[in-house]
């Protein structure tokens, strides 16, 4: 898959993956809290401090996972589907995977994550207060009781942070989708709402950057650097979404048939990869070929499969050993929307989709053929805008 991470399982048909960046994050959480709890000012035993730190790391991860699953649950109840959700610290890729059909659906799905995080923060705060003012003197209570209160307090602070930060109106945060839903409802046009939301996100990002620089000037380097990085990420995400919106507008009304490979390559299963790469991959980088034995269609092979095989073994490896079985290759309809087919292609991680044709056998919709069409339409659009003195799109900046 294009999206990284380790698969944890499926919830409501959605594949849940954990991003690799959690490894250093969780390790830092354990080291930080275990060291903090064992310092002389606190004086906890090493074993109790380590166990508490591990529990905190686990609950932090579960809080983020619950945040993302809230989006999945609400999306499923609204008849929507996300193929993959990657659990990251902030801004899960559900933003790109769940496509709302109405502003109301988008608002409900986007608000689900922050709402659950703030609810967890409220419950954790109540637990913390109970142990602080309840019948038990927390300062003289057993380590186990103190640990429960401490974990609850950390969980409250973290979920409050997670919920409020995700309300910021900048991609990839949930606040951007919520703002998009409101703008969509007010204007009645999703494309206009997207442009407005991207513009707001860009301003928010630059405010973060400016604030971070100011903090660094005032000798708060750590906080300042964090704000600069966060702002730059929001600006970068807004730029990507702007380009994506331009591309989607560019391809409105375009069908898969408009971007088919005119003459898809067909290779035998016994062809070795060195010969295949030399004859086809040089000129057709990013393209793919159908693997056939006579009239039997066996699979698909392309750049993605070639790159997985060490070059030194190409001479001994046949295409049938490296191909993706045809049963595992997604299909597209020639009458289907090109944008939907591109999303399917992106999610598949392959170089092409199989397209059934009324005559002449199956064809291919490949990354290469799609890129050629996008380039042609982008050039045409830029010429039209230049002739009319209009605004240039993201690709022409």
Give me some keywords for this one.
single chain; 397 residues; alpha/beta; CBS-domain; 3 domains; 4-stranded mixed beta sheet; 3-stranded mixed beta sheet; 13 helices; 10 strands; 11% strand; globular; disordered C terminus
Low-pLDDT segments, ≥5 res: 392-397
Helix content: 55-70%
Total beta strands: 10
Structural class: alpha/beta
Please summarize the sheet with the most strands: 4 strands, mixed
Strand order of the largest sheet: 4-5-6-7
Overall mean pLDDT stands at 82
Report the sheet-strand fraction.
5-15%
- Element order: H for helix, E for strand: EEHHEHHHHHHEHEEHHEEHEEH
Tally of individual domains:
3
Q: Which word captures the global form? A: globular
Distance between the termini: 31 Å
Q: Mind telling me the C-alpha Rg? A: 26 Å
Could you please describe the fold and organization of this structure?
This protein is of the alpha/beta class. It has three domains: 6-167, no CATH class; 190-250; 256-375, CBS-domain (Roll), CATH 3.10.580. Helices cover 58% and strands 11% of the residues. It has helices at residues 22-38, 46-77, 94-97, 103-133, 143-165, 174-187, 190-217, 221-250, 273-281, 303-306, 319-322, 338-348, 367-388; strands spanning 6-11, 14-18, 84-87, 265-267, 288-293, 296-302, 324-325, 331-332, 352-355, 363-366. Residues 392-397 have low confidence and may be disordered.
């Amino acid at each position: 898959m294009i999206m990284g991470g380790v698969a944890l399982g499926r919830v409501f048909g959605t594949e849940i993956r954990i991003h690799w960046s959690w490894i250093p994050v969780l390790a830092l959480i354990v080291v930080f809290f275990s060291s903090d709890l064992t310092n002389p000012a606190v004086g906890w035993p090493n074993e109790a401090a380590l166990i508490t730190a591990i529990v905190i790391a686990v609950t932090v991860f579960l809080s983020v996972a619950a945040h993302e699953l809230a989006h999945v649950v609400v999306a499923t109840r609204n008849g929507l589907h996300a193929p993959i959700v990657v659990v990251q610290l902030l801004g899960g890729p559900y933003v790109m995977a769940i496509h709302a059909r109405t502003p109301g659906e988008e608002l409900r799905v986007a608000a689900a994550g922050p709402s659950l995080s703030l609810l967890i923060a409220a419950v954790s705060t109540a637990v913390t207060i109970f142990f602080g003012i309840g019948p038990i003197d927390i300062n003289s209570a057993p380590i186990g009781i103190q640990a429960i209160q401490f974990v609850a307090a950390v969980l409250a602070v973290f979920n409050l942070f997670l919920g409020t930060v995700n309300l910021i109106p900048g991609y990839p945060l949930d606040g951007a989708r919520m703002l998009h839903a409101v703008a969509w409802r007010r204007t009645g046009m999703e494309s206009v709402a997207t442009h407005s939301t991207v513009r707001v996100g860009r301003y928010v990002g630059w405010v973060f950057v400016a604030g971070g620089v100011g903090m660094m000037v005032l000798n708060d380097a750590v906080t300042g650097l964090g704000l600069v990085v966060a702002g730059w990420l929001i600006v970068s995400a807004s730029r990507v979404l702007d380009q994506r919106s331009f591309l989607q507008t560019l391809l409105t009304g375009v069908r898969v048939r408009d971007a088919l490979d005119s003459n898809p390559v067909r290779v035998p299963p016994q062809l070795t990869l060195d010969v295949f790469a030399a004859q086809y991959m040089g000129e057709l980088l990013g393209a793919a070929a159908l693997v056939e034995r006579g009239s039997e269609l066996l699979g698909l092979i392309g750049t993605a499969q070639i790159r997985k095989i060490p070059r030194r073994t190409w001479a001994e490896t046949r295409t049938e050993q490296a191909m993706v079985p045809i049963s595992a290759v997604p299909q597209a309809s020639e009458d289907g929307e090109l944008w939907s087919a591109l999303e399917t292609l992106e999610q598949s991680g392959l170089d092409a989709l199989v397209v059934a044709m009324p005559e002449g056998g199956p064809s291919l919709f490949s990354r290469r053929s799609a890129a050629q069409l996008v380039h042609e339409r982008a050039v045409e659009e830029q010429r039209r805008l230049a002739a009319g003195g209009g605004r240039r799109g993201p690709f022409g900046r």
